[in-house]
Amino acid sequence: MQYRRLGSTGMYVSEITYGNWITHGSQVDSDAAKKCVKAALDSGITTFDTADSYAFGRAETVLGKSLKGVKRESYELITKIYWPTGEGKNDRGLSRKHIFESFHDSLKRLQTDHLDVLICHRYDHETPLEETVSALNDLVRQGKVHYVGVSEWNAEEIRKGLAIQDKNNYNRFITNQAQYSALYRVIEKEVVPLSMREGIGQIVFSPLCQGVLTGKYLPGKKPPANSRATDKNSLVGGAGFISGWLRDDVLAAVHELKPIAKELNITMAQLALAWVLSNENVSSAIMGATTPAQVKENAKGSGISLTPEVIKQINKILSPHAETDPRKNQSPNPRA
After folding, report:
1. Residue 235 pLDDT > 50, yes or no?
2. Which one of 54, 82, 170, 180 is the catalytic residue?
3. What domains sit in the chain, N to C, each tagged with a CATH number?
4. Where are the transmembrane segments (predicted)?
5. Is 180 a catalytic residue?
Protein backbone atom coordinates (compact mmCIF):
# COMPACT_ATOMS: atom_id res chain seq x y z
CA MET A 1 0.00 0.00 0.00
CA GLN A 2 1.20 3.45 -0.96
CA TYR A 3 0.29 6.67 0.89
CA ARG A 4 -0.28 10.23 -0.28
CA ARG A 5 -0.71 13.58 1.42
CA LEU A 6 -4.29 14.75 1.62
CA GLY A 7 -4.19 17.94 -0.41
CA SER A 8 -1.62 20.38 0.94
CA THR A 9 -1.89 19.10 4.51
CA GLY A 10 0.74 17.13 6.39
CA MET A 11 -1.61 14.17 6.91
CA TYR A 12 -1.15 11.07 4.79
CA VAL A 13 -3.95 8.77 3.64
CA SER A 14 -3.75 5.36 2.03
CA GLU A 15 -4.17 5.37 -1.75
CA ILE A 16 -7.12 3.04 -1.23
CA THR A 17 -9.79 4.14 1.24
CA TYR A 18 -12.16 1.56 2.71
CA GLY A 19 -15.74 2.82 2.28
CA ASN A 20 -18.98 1.34 3.62
CA TRP A 21 -21.62 3.17 1.60
CA ILE A 22 -23.92 0.27 0.63
CA THR A 23 -22.27 -2.57 2.52
CA HIS A 24 -22.23 -2.11 6.30
CA GLY A 25 -25.69 -2.16 7.79
CA SER A 26 -27.20 -3.10 4.44
CA GLN A 27 -25.53 -5.78 2.30
CA VAL A 28 -23.34 -7.54 4.88
CA ASP A 29 -23.81 -8.38 8.55
CA SER A 30 -21.65 -7.08 11.38
CA ASP A 31 -19.44 -10.16 11.54
CA ALA A 32 -18.65 -10.02 7.81
CA ALA A 33 -18.01 -6.28 8.05
CA LYS A 34 -15.57 -6.82 10.90
CA LYS A 35 -13.64 -9.35 8.80
CA CYS A 36 -13.53 -6.90 5.88
CA VAL A 37 -12.18 -4.13 8.11
CA LYS A 38 -9.51 -6.46 9.47
CA ALA A 39 -8.55 -7.42 5.91
CA ALA A 40 -8.29 -3.73 5.05
CA LEU A 41 -5.96 -3.05 7.97
CA ASP A 42 -3.89 -6.13 7.13
CA SER A 43 -3.59 -4.83 3.55
CA GLY A 44 -2.22 -1.49 4.71
CA ILE A 45 -5.42 0.50 4.27
CA THR A 46 -5.53 3.14 6.99
CA THR A 47 -8.27 5.46 5.71
CA PHE A 48 -11.94 4.66 6.39
CA ASP A 49 -14.91 6.55 4.97
CA THR A 50 -18.55 6.52 6.05
CA ALA A 51 -21.48 8.94 6.54
CA ASP A 52 -24.24 9.63 9.03
CA SER A 53 -26.91 8.74 6.46
CA TYR A 54 -25.48 5.40 5.29
CA ALA A 55 -28.02 2.76 6.29
CA PHE A 56 -29.54 5.45 8.52
CA GLY A 57 -26.58 5.45 10.89
CA ARG A 58 -26.04 1.71 11.03
CA ALA A 59 -22.99 1.90 8.76
CA GLU A 60 -21.22 4.14 11.27
CA THR A 61 -22.22 1.84 14.11
CA VAL A 62 -20.83 -1.22 12.36
CA LEU A 63 -17.62 0.57 11.42
CA GLY A 64 -17.15 1.80 14.97
CA LYS A 65 -17.51 -1.73 16.33
CA SER A 66 -15.17 -3.10 13.67
CA LEU A 67 -12.43 -0.59 14.56
CA LYS A 68 -12.81 -1.02 18.31
CA GLY A 69 -9.47 -1.89 19.88
CA VAL A 70 -7.44 -0.54 16.96
CA LYS A 71 -5.02 2.21 17.98
CA ARG A 72 -6.87 5.41 17.10
CA GLU A 73 -3.77 7.21 15.84
CA SER A 74 -3.07 4.43 13.34
CA TYR A 75 -6.00 5.17 11.01
CA GLU A 76 -7.80 8.13 9.45
CA LEU A 77 -11.55 8.33 9.96
CA ILE A 78 -13.88 10.28 7.66
CA THR A 79 -17.61 10.85 7.93
CA LYS A 80 -20.07 13.16 6.24
CA ILE A 81 -23.10 15.31 7.04
CA TYR A 82 -26.02 16.55 4.88
CA TRP A 83 -28.54 13.89 3.89
CA PRO A 84 -31.58 13.17 6.12
CA THR A 85 -30.89 11.27 9.34
CA GLY A 86 -34.45 11.42 10.64
CA GLU A 87 -37.98 12.69 10.00
CA GLY A 88 -37.53 16.06 11.69
CA LYS A 89 -37.40 19.29 9.69
CA ASN A 90 -33.87 19.96 11.01
CA ASP A 91 -32.54 16.41 10.58
CA ARG A 92 -30.81 17.31 7.31
CA GLY A 93 -28.78 19.98 5.56
CA LEU A 94 -25.84 22.02 6.80
CA SER A 95 -27.32 24.28 9.46
CA ARG A 96 -25.27 24.80 12.62
CA LYS A 97 -27.95 22.88 14.53
CA HIS A 98 -27.82 19.82 12.30
CA ILE A 99 -24.03 19.84 11.93
CA PHE A 100 -23.46 19.85 15.69
CA GLU A 101 -26.20 17.35 16.52
CA SER A 102 -25.42 14.89 13.76
CA PHE A 103 -21.67 15.18 14.28
CA HIS A 104 -21.91 14.26 17.96
CA ASP A 105 -24.24 11.37 17.13
CA SER A 106 -21.64 10.16 14.63
CA LEU A 107 -18.93 10.23 17.30
CA LYS A 108 -21.08 8.01 19.53
CA ARG A 109 -21.77 5.52 16.75
CA LEU A 110 -18.12 5.46 15.68
CA GLN A 111 -16.95 5.12 19.30
CA THR A 112 -14.37 7.90 19.04
CA ASP A 113 -13.84 11.37 20.45
CA HIS A 114 -12.69 12.99 17.20
CA LEU A 115 -12.71 12.72 13.41
CA ASP A 116 -9.79 13.17 11.08
CA VAL A 117 -11.98 14.64 8.34
CA LEU A 118 -15.57 15.92 8.43
CA ILE A 119 -17.15 16.43 5.02
CA CYS A 120 -20.21 18.36 3.86
CA HIS A 121 -21.93 15.63 1.85
CA ARG A 122 -23.46 18.10 -0.62
CA TYR A 123 -23.95 21.88 -0.94
CA ASP A 124 -26.88 23.31 1.03
CA HIS A 125 -28.62 26.04 -0.97
CA GLU A 126 -30.94 26.94 1.95
CA THR A 127 -28.40 27.48 4.74
CA PRO A 128 -26.14 30.56 4.62
CA LEU A 129 -22.65 29.39 3.68
CA GLU A 130 -21.16 31.53 6.48
CA GLU A 131 -23.22 29.55 9.00
CA THR A 132 -21.96 26.23 7.65
CA VAL A 133 -18.25 27.06 7.50
CA SER A 134 -18.39 28.81 10.88
CA ALA A 135 -19.83 25.68 12.49
CA LEU A 136 -17.18 23.51 10.86
CA ASN A 137 -14.45 25.85 12.05
CA ASP A 138 -15.76 25.72 15.63
CA LEU A 139 -15.50 21.91 15.61
CA VAL A 140 -11.89 22.14 14.41
CA ARG A 141 -10.98 24.70 17.08
CA GLN A 142 -12.61 22.51 19.72
CA GLY A 143 -10.21 19.73 18.72
CA LYS A 144 -13.01 17.42 17.64
CA VAL A 145 -12.14 17.52 13.93
CA HIS A 146 -8.70 17.77 12.33
CA TYR A 147 -9.72 18.78 8.81
CA VAL A 148 -12.88 19.69 6.88
CA GLY A 149 -13.92 19.12 3.30
CA VAL A 150 -16.79 18.88 0.85
CA SER A 151 -18.34 16.29 -1.42
CA GLU A 152 -19.61 16.87 -4.95
CA TRP A 153 -19.53 20.67 -4.66
CA ASN A 154 -18.93 22.40 -7.97
CA ALA A 155 -16.02 24.76 -8.50
CA GLU A 156 -18.00 27.94 -7.79
CA GLU A 157 -19.40 26.53 -4.54
CA ILE A 158 -15.93 25.52 -3.37
CA ARG A 159 -14.57 28.94 -4.34
CA LYS A 160 -17.29 30.73 -2.31
CA GLY A 161 -16.57 28.58 0.74
CA LEU A 162 -12.84 29.21 0.56
CA ALA A 163 -13.40 32.97 0.26
CA ILE A 164 -15.42 33.05 3.48
CA GLN A 165 -12.87 30.87 5.24
CA ASP A 166 -9.99 33.09 4.18
CA LYS A 167 -11.83 36.30 5.10
CA ASN A 168 -12.52 35.03 8.62
CA ASN A 169 -9.29 33.09 9.12
CA TYR A 170 -11.24 29.82 9.32
CA ASN A 171 -9.72 26.42 8.66
CA ARG A 172 -9.92 25.77 4.91
CA PHE A 173 -11.41 22.88 2.97
CA ILE A 174 -8.63 20.40 2.25
CA THR A 175 -10.50 17.69 0.37
CA ASN A 176 -13.33 17.15 -2.08
CA GLN A 177 -15.00 13.75 -2.20
CA ALA A 178 -16.13 13.38 -5.78
CA GLN A 179 -17.36 10.67 -8.09
CA TYR A 180 -14.54 9.96 -10.52
CA SER A 181 -13.59 7.17 -12.88
CA ALA A 182 -12.41 6.65 -16.44
CA LEU A 183 -16.10 6.86 -17.41
CA TYR A 184 -17.22 9.69 -15.08
CA ARG A 185 -14.87 12.68 -15.40
CA VAL A 186 -17.00 15.74 -14.59
CA ILE A 187 -14.49 17.16 -12.06
CA GLU A 188 -11.64 17.44 -14.57
CA LYS A 189 -12.58 20.69 -16.31
CA GLU A 190 -13.26 22.97 -13.34
CA VAL A 191 -12.99 21.29 -9.93
CA VAL A 192 -9.55 19.72 -10.37
CA PRO A 193 -7.79 22.89 -11.66
CA LEU A 194 -9.27 24.90 -8.77
CA SER A 195 -8.35 22.20 -6.27
CA MET A 196 -4.76 22.05 -7.44
CA ARG A 197 -4.41 25.81 -7.03
CA GLU A 198 -6.00 25.78 -3.59
CA GLY A 199 -4.33 22.70 -2.09
CA ILE A 200 -7.43 20.51 -2.11
CA GLY A 201 -6.98 16.78 -2.69
CA GLN A 202 -9.66 14.56 -4.21
CA ILE A 203 -10.86 11.47 -2.36
CA VAL A 204 -12.87 9.84 -5.11
CA PHE A 205 -15.74 7.38 -4.97
CA SER A 206 -17.01 4.92 -7.56
CA PRO A 207 -13.57 4.56 -9.23
CA LEU A 208 -14.88 1.37 -10.86
CA CYS A 209 -18.02 3.15 -12.05
CA GLN A 210 -20.19 0.98 -9.81
CA GLY A 211 -18.39 -2.14 -11.00
CA VAL A 212 -18.85 -1.54 -14.73
CA LEU A 213 -15.09 -1.15 -15.22
CA THR A 214 -14.40 -4.58 -13.73
CA GLY A 215 -15.65 -6.11 -16.98
CA LYS A 216 -18.13 -8.42 -15.25
CA TYR A 217 -21.08 -6.90 -17.11
CA LEU A 218 -21.21 -8.05 -20.74
CA PRO A 219 -23.08 -6.49 -23.67
CA GLY A 220 -26.29 -8.33 -24.50
CA LYS A 221 -26.11 -10.42 -21.31
CA LYS A 222 -28.07 -10.27 -18.06
CA PRO A 223 -26.12 -8.92 -15.05
CA PRO A 224 -24.51 -11.62 -12.87
CA ALA A 225 -26.57 -12.79 -9.91
CA ASN A 226 -25.84 -11.01 -6.61
CA SER A 227 -24.08 -8.13 -8.41
CA ARG A 228 -24.80 -4.46 -7.71
CA ALA A 229 -26.96 -4.33 -10.83
CA THR A 230 -29.36 -6.81 -9.22
CA ASP A 231 -29.27 -5.22 -5.75
CA LYS A 232 -32.77 -3.77 -5.80
CA ASN A 233 -33.17 -4.17 -2.04
CA SER A 234 -30.27 -1.88 -1.13
CA LEU A 235 -31.29 1.09 0.99
CA VAL A 236 -29.77 3.38 -1.62
CA GLY A 237 -30.83 1.45 -4.68
CA GLY A 238 -27.62 -0.08 -6.00
CA ALA A 239 -29.37 -1.30 -9.14
CA GLY A 240 -30.79 2.14 -9.87
CA PHE A 241 -27.43 3.85 -9.50
CA ILE A 242 -25.64 1.62 -11.99
CA SER A 243 -28.44 1.21 -14.54
CA GLY A 244 -27.42 4.19 -16.69
CA TRP A 245 -24.05 2.59 -17.46
CA LEU A 246 -25.36 -0.82 -18.50
CA ARG A 247 -25.57 0.11 -22.16
CA ASP A 248 -24.15 -2.20 -24.78
CA ASP A 249 -21.91 0.51 -26.28
CA VAL A 250 -20.33 1.22 -22.88
CA LEU A 251 -19.95 -2.45 -21.97
CA ALA A 252 -18.40 -3.25 -25.34
CA ALA A 253 -15.86 -0.45 -24.89
CA VAL A 254 -14.97 -1.70 -21.40
CA HIS A 255 -14.45 -5.16 -22.87
CA GLU A 256 -11.72 -3.67 -25.09
CA LEU A 257 -9.68 -2.90 -21.95
CA LYS A 258 -9.22 -6.57 -21.08
CA PRO A 259 -6.15 -7.11 -23.30
CA ILE A 260 -4.51 -4.07 -21.67
CA ALA A 261 -5.04 -5.47 -18.18
CA LYS A 262 -3.88 -8.90 -19.28
CA GLU A 263 -0.67 -7.52 -20.77
CA LEU A 264 0.05 -5.67 -17.52
CA ASN A 265 -0.81 -8.80 -15.50
CA ILE A 266 -3.37 -6.97 -13.39
CA THR A 267 -7.13 -7.24 -12.98
CA MET A 268 -9.60 -4.92 -14.66
CA ALA A 269 -10.43 -3.42 -11.26
CA GLN A 270 -6.77 -2.73 -10.58
CA LEU A 271 -6.44 -1.12 -14.01
CA ALA A 272 -9.37 1.19 -13.28
CA LEU A 273 -7.91 2.12 -9.90
CA ALA A 274 -4.48 2.77 -11.37
CA TRP A 275 -6.06 5.07 -13.97
CA VAL A 276 -7.81 7.11 -11.26
CA LEU A 277 -4.66 7.31 -9.14
CA SER A 278 -2.65 8.52 -12.14
CA ASN A 279 -4.39 11.89 -11.63
CA GLU A 280 -1.97 13.79 -9.38
CA ASN A 281 -4.85 15.63 -7.68
CA VAL A 282 -6.32 12.35 -6.40
CA SER A 283 -5.19 11.57 -2.87
CA SER A 284 -7.17 8.34 -2.47
CA ALA A 285 -9.82 6.17 -4.13
CA ILE A 286 -12.69 4.76 -2.08
CA MET A 287 -13.46 1.06 -2.47
CA GLY A 288 -16.27 -0.94 -0.94
CA ALA A 289 -16.28 -4.70 -0.47
CA THR A 290 -18.49 -7.47 0.85
CA THR A 291 -15.74 -10.06 1.44
CA PRO A 292 -12.16 -9.98 2.79
CA ALA A 293 -10.96 -11.40 -0.54
CA GLN A 294 -12.42 -8.39 -2.37
CA VAL A 295 -10.70 -6.03 0.06
CA LYS A 296 -7.30 -7.65 -0.48
CA GLU A 297 -7.74 -7.64 -4.26
CA ASN A 298 -8.80 -3.97 -4.29
CA ALA A 299 -5.85 -2.98 -2.12
CA LYS A 300 -3.51 -4.24 -4.83
CA GLY A 301 -4.71 -1.36 -7.02
CA SER A 302 -2.31 0.85 -5.08
CA GLY A 303 1.21 1.42 -6.36
CA ILE A 304 0.53 0.50 -10.00
CA SER A 305 2.15 2.98 -12.37
CA LEU A 306 0.61 3.28 -15.83
CA THR A 307 2.72 4.66 -18.67
CA PRO A 308 1.44 7.70 -20.60
CA GLU A 309 0.95 5.38 -23.58
CA VAL A 310 -1.34 3.06 -21.62
CA ILE A 311 -3.34 5.98 -20.22
CA LYS A 312 -3.71 7.38 -23.73
CA GLN A 313 -4.91 3.98 -24.96
CA ILE A 314 -7.52 3.71 -22.19
CA ASN A 315 -8.75 7.24 -22.85
CA LYS A 316 -9.07 6.57 -26.58
CA ILE A 317 -11.34 3.59 -25.85
CA LEU A 318 -13.50 5.14 -23.14
CA SER A 319 -13.56 8.88 -23.85
CA PRO A 320 -16.40 8.66 -26.42
CA HIS A 321 -18.59 7.18 -23.68
CA ALA A 322 -17.38 9.23 -20.70
CA GLU A 323 -19.45 11.84 -18.90
CA THR A 324 -17.48 15.11 -18.73
CA ASP A 325 -20.10 17.85 -18.24
CA PRO A 326 -19.15 19.86 -15.09
CA ARG A 327 -22.81 20.81 -14.67
CA LYS A 328 -23.40 17.27 -13.44
CA ASN A 329 -21.93 18.42 -10.10
CA GLN A 330 -25.28 19.23 -8.50
CA SER A 331 -26.59 19.08 -4.94
CA PRO A 332 -30.25 18.02 -4.67
CA ASN A 333 -32.34 19.65 -1.97
CA PRO A 334 -32.37 17.26 1.04
CA ARG A 335 -35.80 18.61 1.97
CA ALA A 336 -37.38 17.85 -1.40
Report:
1. no
2. 54
3. 3-209+269-304+323-328 (3.20.20.100)
4. none
5. no
